[in-house]
Design goal:
408 residues; alpha/beta; Rossmann fold; binds flavin mononucleotide
Length: 408
């Protein structure tokens, strides 16, 4: 019988037992929630060492966190010489919750003028940041740029959430639930479970040219594919990201191949998917149709235009038709809940897994940071709630780990 499961978030499964967590608490109104987070992490069997910024001291006392963590709380760069090297050296994971706009900016620019920011620079493991601030601050392009920069360097972001803020306004800026932050910490500690994998990920749209200045494209931003590539890289895989035109920052620590048209995408996928590639994730929104002809010169307005389209090459079938082929994960963006059609597509194209999402649903699909998906594989279906694309990426990879062929 096929299985069905609903995923509200990734679970910790004892991952934090005996782990050493370095928690940075910064000066936001949600700082008081750090006490609850410390308790939650300790309940999971972790030991927690807290660093507070000076501003955090306006919102919560070191004593509260000392009592909760049963550990010394560090507040100054100069009180304990070399703490900025010694504390990170023994931490399995570093988490900053709440993370102010200020600390995010300092991290993104390598400023190290207090204990927490200096620890950030000397830490070589996984870092989780949980931003929390007024929605106008959060939506500020500078904050967004800083977060993008951090994420492209492997920092994991959890939240914020939409809701009522301390200032009385509604918006995106609330600190994530303590449980979600603890789970993100657990996920960060998962370790390098994909270190034997060589993964090719495609992302973004393609452009199909009508003439040198006009093209047909689609709304894909590349966010889902980039999140998958980053998550696979962070879990130890050797990753090649083949991207159509996207404004997202290029993630580091992986091979990046830029393409523009569906033909270039096909060429790149065929070339980059070698015999040693273990997984191909086709999350790019490759054009289904392209103009029958591409004019070499700009078509004059006065000439009028009737576009004749023909089907673009099917990239997945090129790979699944090979004798030696990787585990293939496809994506099906639909308008409406046509899950059966996605399952049929998976079987027809001989994929191993397909990720269905209804792009007409609020908060899911194109140009947003969240998604709600149904992951279909040969065993059954996994339905997720509306989660960040980073979380969805990890869930997709978790499903691959559960499905992967033995010895693969
Ligand atoms: C009452 C009050 C509430 C604040 N809440 C936040 C907040 O929730 N998030 C934020 O990013 N900054 C907030 N700030 C601004 C920070 O406290 C300020 O940027 C500070 O420099 C942060 O320092 P730190 O990042 O070193 O902790 C608040 C300031 C005040 C006075």
């Amino acid at each position: 019988m096929k299985s069905f499961s609903l995923i509200k978030s990734r679970k910790m499964q004892g991952k934090l037992k005996d782990k050493s967590i370095l928690l940075g608490v910064t000066g936001g109104v949600a700082a008081y929630k750090a006490v609850e987070l410390v308790r939650r992490l300790k309940d999971e069997g972790a030991s927690v060492t807290v660093i507070m910024t000076k501003a955090a001291g306006h919102f919560i006392t070191p004593l509260s966190l000392e009592v909760a963590s049963q550990n010394i709380v560090y507040t100054s760069l100069f009180d304990t010489p070399m703490a900025h090297i010694a504390l990170p050296a023994k931490a399995d994971v570093m988490v900053i919750a709440p993370a102010t706009a200020n600390i995010i900016a300092k991290f993104a620019h390598g400023i190290a003028d207090d204990l927490l920011s200096a620890c950030f620079l000397s830490y070589q493991g996984r870092i989780v940041v949980a931003p929390s601030m007024n929605w106008k601050m959060y939506e500020n392009q500078i904050v967004q740029e800083n977060l993008r920069k951090l994420k492209s360097r492997g920092v994991i972001q959890v939240g914020p959430e939409k809701g009522r803020l301390a200032c009385g306004e509604e918006g995106l800026g609330r600190l994530s639930d303590v449980q979600d932050i603890a789970e993100a910490v657990g996920a960060a500690i998962t370790g390098k479970d994909l270190s034997n994998e060589k993964i090719v990920v495609t992302a973004g749209p393609t452009r199909e040219y009508i003439d040198p200045v006009r093209f047909i494209s689609n709304r894909s931003s590349g966010r889902m594919g980039y999140a998958l590539a980053r998550a696979a890289r962070d879990r130890g895989a050797a990753v090649t990201l083949i991207s159509g035109p996207s404004s997202l920052e290029r993630p580091c620590g992986l091979k990046f191949v830029q393409v523009e048209t569906s033909e270039e995408m096909l060429e790149a996928v065929a070339k980059e998917t070698g015999e040693d590639t273990t997984v191909l994730i086709m999350s790019a929104a490759v054009a289904d149709f392209k103009p029958q002809e591409r004019s070499a010169s700009k078509i004059e307005k006065s000439e009028g235009m009737t576009l004749k389209l023909h089907k673009a090459d099917d990239i997945i079938s090129h790979i699944t038709g090979r004798d030696k082929r990787p585990f293939v994960i496809g994506f099906a963006a639909e308008t409406g809940g046509n899950i059966d059609r996605a399952e049929k597509k998976m079987l027809q194209k001989n994929m191993d897994m397909i990720v269905f999402n209804d792009v007409s649903e609020p908060g899911a699909g194109f140009e947003v940071d969240t998604n709600r998906v149904v992951i279909i594989d040969r065993r059954g279906k996994t339905v997720t709630e509306l989660l960040s694309k980073d979380s969805i990426a990890d869930i997709v990879l978790d499903r691959f780990v559960e499905n992967k062929p033995c010895g693969g």
